[in-house]
Amino acid sequence: MRFADGVSALDLNSGLWNVPLGYRNARVGEAVMAAMTVGSYGGVFRRSSVAAEEVAERLVHLWPRGTYGKVLFATSGSAANDAVIKLSRLHRRRLGRSDRPVVVSFEGSYHGQTLGAMGLSGEDLLQGEMLTAPHEFVKVPVDDSDRVRQILDSHGTRISAVFIEPLQGTGTRPMDDAVLQEIFEARRRHGFLVIADEVATGFGRTGVMFRSARWRESADLVVLSKALTNGTQAASAILVGSEVADVFAAQGAIFPHGETQAGSLWACAAMNAVLDEFEERFGMVTADAQLPETRSMEQFLDKVSAPSMGLQVRGEGMFYTITGTEDFDGLAVGERLRSAGLVVHAGLHSIQLAPPFVLSHQQWADAAETLKEELHRVCADG
C-alpha cells in the first residue's frame, strides 16, 4: 500500500479482511473486466442468470450433497444478515408460529451496520439510539454454556434464529464447543434456525475454507461476503439449507428480498475467479479443506514472540489479535507500525492481523522482524 504521505507499507490486514489473494490479483481482475464487456448489469432481481446459477452451484457443491439447496445473493454482509433475519421470521410463519419472534446473537459480536445487523451485533454501535425494537434482539455470553441454555429455553419457540460467528471478528475469539452443543440441542427442542455468519471467516481466514463446516452439526444458513470477490465487488451470498428451502417450496411461498446490484455479471465473474484461485492455488475444493498457508502464520507468530513481552495472542488460522494491558494504545501502535511499513487493524488496546495468503517467504520474514521490533519498543517504553 502507498499512502498520501509517502509511506509504503505491507498490508497485514488484507484490506478489511477481504483481500486474501492480494491486491491486483490478475485472474479476478481479468474476469471482472471481461464480464463488463459482455453486459452492464445482469442482476438477479425477480429472475436468475446463467452466471449466478453457476456460482450458486459451485458454492453448494463445496459442502456434502444435500446440505444446502439454494443460494441468495446480496450486496454486503450487513445486507445479507438483514435478509436472513427476514427469512428466519418468515420460516417461523410457514411453520405456523405467529407470536412475536426474537433473534439471538452473542455478546461482543459484529454482524454489520445496517439496522438489522446492528441489532444483531453485540458491540456497542449506538443501537440504543437507533433501534426501534431492541427487545427483539437477545444477546448471550460466548463462554457460558449453562447461561446460553437458560436464555434459549426462556425464549423457546419465539426464537427464529441464532446467529454465530465461528470466530468473532472482534478479538478473534473462537466459539466455545460446549456453547455450540447447547445451541444445537436447543435447536432440536425449539425449532429455530442456526446461522453461520462467515462474512469475515469464510474462504480460509480461520485456516479452513469455512469454519462452520467443521461443526458437529450443519448450520441452517451460511452468510458469505468479504473474500467472496477478493474485495473487488459489493457482493454477498446466503447458502440456504435444503430443509429450510423445502418448507417454502412445499407451500409455494416466496421470500421477498431483492437488491438491484446483487448477483450482477461482474460480481459473479469475481466469485467464480476466486473459487478458481482457491481450487488451483491452494487445493481447497471442499468446505472443510485446510489452508496450507497457516504454517507460515504460525512461524510468523513464533518469530514475533509477543507473549514474551507480556502480550496476549488469540485467534486461529490467518486471523489473530495481539492484546496488551489498558496502557497498550492500540491506535498509536497501529500508526507506529504503518510508519515502519506494516498495516494492521488497530483497536483501543489491541492490534489484529489478517494477512493475505500470498506473501513471499521474504515478506513474512521482514514483517515478523518489523513487528517484533516495534512491539518490543512499545512494551519497553511502558
Automatic annotation (TrEMBL):
Its EC number is 2.6.1.62. InterPro entries: Aminotrans_3, Aminotrans_3_PPA_site, Class-III_PLP-dep_AT, PyrdxlP-dep_Trfase, PyrdxlP-dep_Trfase_major, PyrdxlP-dep_Trfase_small. One of its GO terms (molecular function) is adenosylmethionine-8-amino-7-oxononanoate transaminase activity. The keyword Isomerase does not apply. Its cofactor is pyridoxal 5'-phosphate. PROSITE patterns: AA_TRANSFER_CLASS_3. Keywords: Aminotransferase, Pyridoxal phosphate, Transferase. Coiled coil: none annotated. PANTHER family: ACETYLORNITHINE AMINOTRANSFERASE, MITOCHONDRIAL (PTHR11986:SF79), AMINOTRANSFERASE CLASS III (PTHR11986). Belongs to the class-III pyridoxal-phosphate-dependent aminotransferase family. This is Adenosylmethionine-8-amino-7-oxononanoate aminotransferase. It comes from Micrococcus lylae.
